[in-house]
Amino acid sequence: MKIKADRAALLKALAHVQSVVEKRNTIPILANVKIEAKDVRLTLTATDMEIAVVEEVPATSMTDGACTAPAATLYEIVRKLPEGAEIQLDHAGGDAQLGLRAGRYATTLVVLPTDDFPSMTAGTLSYRFALSAHDLRNLIDRTRFAISTEETRYYLNGIYLHAADSDGVPVLRAVATDGHRLARFQVALPEGAGKIPGVIVPRKTVVELRKLLDETTAEVDVALSETRIQFKAGPVTLTSKLIDGTFPEYERVIPRDNDKVLRVGKKDFSDAVGRVAAISAERSRPVKLAIERNLLTLSASSPDQGAAKEELDGERVKYDSTPLEIGFQARYLTDITDQIDREIEFRFSDGAAPTVVQDAADPSALYVLMPMRV
Amino acid sequence: MAAARSRLIPVPALCRDCDADAGAATTCPRCGGRRIIRHAELAELAIAHIDCDAFYASVEKRDRPELAARPVIVGGGVRGVVTAACYIARISGVRSAMPMFTALRACPDAVVIRPDFAKYVAVARQLRALMAELTPLLQPLSIDEAVLDLSGTAALHGGPPALALIRFVRRVEAEIGVTVSVGLARNRLMAKIAAGRDKPRGFCVIGGEAAALLAAEPVRLLPGIGPAAAKRLEGKGITRLGQMQVLEPRAALRLLGEDGPALVRRARGEDDRAVDPRRETRSISAETTFDADLTQRAELERRLWPLAEKLARRLSEQGCAAAGVVLKLKTAGFALRTRTQRLPGPTRLPDVLFAAARRLLEREADGTAFRLIGIAAQPLAPLAAADLPDLADPGRARLVAAQTAIDTLRGRFGAAAIGRGRGLAGR
Predict the structure, then answer these.
(1) Considering the domain boundaries, does residue A248 fall inside one?
(2) Which of A34, A277, B226, B348 could form a disulfide linkage to A45, CB 3.0–4.6 angstroms apart?
(3) Cα-flanking dihedrals φ and ψ of residue B320, to 5°?
(4) Is residue A283 domain-shared with residue A188, that is, in the same domain?
(5) Contact yes or no for A252 and B394 at CB 8 A
(6) Could you check whether the bond before residue B29 is cis, i.e. omega within 30 degrees of 0?
(7) Residue A38 domain flag
(8) Taking CB atoms and an 8 Å limit, are A177 and B393 in contact across chains?
(9) Could you give the CA distance from residue B220 to residue B210 in angstroms, rounded to a whole number?
(10) Other C-beta atoms lying within 10 Å of the C-beta of residue A315
(11) How many structural domains does chain A have?
């Protein structure tokens, strides 16, 4: 195998694939990237057995062949080579070391047999649809903060992606919850997605996919089965296993009749939460919201540090229901308000019941937040 | 000097049988009784540790007087363990927690009685009610054991704590029909040690002589010194508490870790823990030993469910919830395995306790033969924090409602009145 490629093209692809490689590996070959030149296509592949990323790299010239080399080392070397360099990869086959040259720099890397490199089979992916990168980014960004890290309920360790009906409009929905908060975001149902099974996309897959989406503006091709999902964005294909579990019937926990509506500017609110919550380093301490007609008082206290309070008056808040007191964990509040652009709408029932939060101007995202006792 | 003073100020002495001031006599001048307690600080000491003597066995003997002179073991089945043994059985070497077959080999003519916990709880409640008349500063330590602070009760009882305790002991024997041992000292540690010193029916008083008295004792006597710590101390040639008493704080830290300096203070008989009536228990558990070893996961799960129910009941009784679940297994070879799982949120629901323990069991049920399974709630959380609405568990609210209904019925008709269908298979 002989390959010539631009440093920039190789670096970008290596950055993508090496990120999938687990830093601590018990199986040595999983630390490697597979480099394959075949039919005038150069591809790089990395996998952790749960996710596989394959990226096609434009090469200036090549002869066929394949080998696997340590992903992290290769990435570090390429990253340190000067911009604009042309890189030449040389592998004689078998156990021979992989030679890398750029200008007057040369290195050799130990390889592992290509046959040992695990191939993650995608199986038959019978459902296929296309989604704009913008929509897919939103589906992830608006929900991923609510993904649970608690291992006992593994079926919460991802984003639940499914087709749903939203007041008669077919939508593609992403939902995540950790039991304390729930995030739901929906986009118009893409063609071909109407019959997809509900799938839970694991957290790591979400993270890796999101990195790839930073550089794409085009459409992303999504293909899935009950057990696998595949995203194709430009030259990169990410294939992942899905979480084998049943996502809770989240619709049942979304309150429908919360009629006490508070509207407040996003910046006013999140700045006030930040200032008030600063009194306590303890993350789990609540921020209390005392709400009455056109007045919102935020307060927090810590037994060791003191107490803080801030008022937002009628110029900045709108509320004309009965007075209410309710507490929330500060970080949970800001995680949600970070998703909102200008005006936040809270819909309360009482101080102990789940609260609905939405962007007053955009109903496609909906958040539910459990109060804390204050 | 001490002798000279004792001549000037007579050492206070009380007759345990008639409350009389026995003066310097060895038999009571009033009733002729020989049970005289005598101590220089008898009129001042106020921290008491009260512990029932072979509690379960005593209750059984009370109810079956024909067994009074026989060795009695309370415990379950041939494959069970000794829950309690009376003092006659103990002479033959029977100890609680001993496997029943070992106990019966040591004491073949023992009468084995299946435990009747409902009865013991009822007796314990009576006992606690009598203790509560002594002082509100009462901290139960187990079903049959409590520590009391009687400071400032002299006016109420018309005499020093020692006198109130003597009367209490007689009252327990007369009204409840079991015997207790009392330790009276300056602090909780010494009161506990005193209570264990001349069981049964003991009344031991330790005052300023605590340090001197402890000096000759083995280090293991001290609560907080386990086998591992004892071994480390022995490595430095320290086997008696007297040697521990003189340890420098730094040496204590090195040898015994963070708690070292505190343990050294205890070795000197010092203890500043207050009696705290509100102090919560740290864990609540339920366990069972099988009649025959079990290896099948399904079998083990079947035994686990009633325990989860029992644990849930105990949690409710004590006003607690479980923030974590501990699964306890003992192999046929007596090796103990405990596995812990923190829960996403505190619970008091048997279903949630069971589910968590079952997940832990899944990894352990690998064909190993087990003789015991247990489930514990640890750490504990206040009941008010239990089973808060969970966005990821829409069914939880219904479970809570069902459990509340079951608790209400049980409160009215008893524990056996109602249960979950799952429990029927285990009967």
Answers:
(1) yes
(2) A34
(3) -125, 165
(4) no
(5) yes
(6) no
(7) yes
(8) no
(9) 16
(10) 9
(11) 3
Q: Is the CB of B391 less than 8 angstroms away from the CB of A182?
A: yes
Cβ neighbours, 10 Å, residue B116: 14
Which has the closest alpha carbon to A351: A298, A257, A265, A288? A288
Helices (H), chain A: 7-18, 71-80, 133-141, 203-213, 266-277, 330-337
Looking at A192, A226, A252, the residue that finishes a domain is A252
Query: DSSP code of A42?
Result: E
- Give the SS3 label for residue A354: coil
Split at pLDDT 50, 70, 90, the class of B1 is very low
Q: Quick: pLDDT tens for A116-172.
A: 999 887 788 999 999 999 999 999 999 999 999 988 789 999 999 999 999 899 999
Q: What angle do CA B404, B405, B407 make, to 5 degrees?
A: 65
CB under 8 Å to B244, separation ≥6 — which residues? Answer: B219, B222, B233, B238, B252, B263, B264, B267
Tokens of A216: 């794409």
Give catalytic status of residue B287 as yes or no. no
The domain boundary residue, chosen from A64, A84, A116:
A116
Within a domain: A245: yes
Nearest CB to B391; choose among A150, A152, A368: A368
pTM score, whole prediction: 0.62
How far separated are the first and last CA of chain B, in Å rounded?
Answer: 69
Q: Which residues of chain B neighbour A180 with C-beta distances below 8 Å?
A: 391
Range from A342-351, B116-125, B154-163, B257-266 carrying the lowest mean pLDDT: B116-125
How many Å apart are CA B27 and CA A58, to the nearest integer? 108
Q: Which domains does chain B have, with CATH numbers?
A: 1-208 (3.30.70.270), 221-267 (1.10.150), 281-425 (3.30.1490.100)
Block residue for tokens 């979950």 = B420
**For chain A, what percent of residues have pLDDT higher than 90?**
80
Chain A residues with CB-CB distance to B389 below 8 A: 253, 353-354, 370
Domain-embedded: residue A237:
yes
Residues 6+ apart with CB under 8 A from A309: A276, A297, A298, A299
Spell out the residues 6+ positions from residue B242 whose beta carbon is closer than 8 angstroms to its own. Answer: B214, B215, B216
Domain extent, residue A155, equals 127-252
B396: closest chain A residue by CA = A253
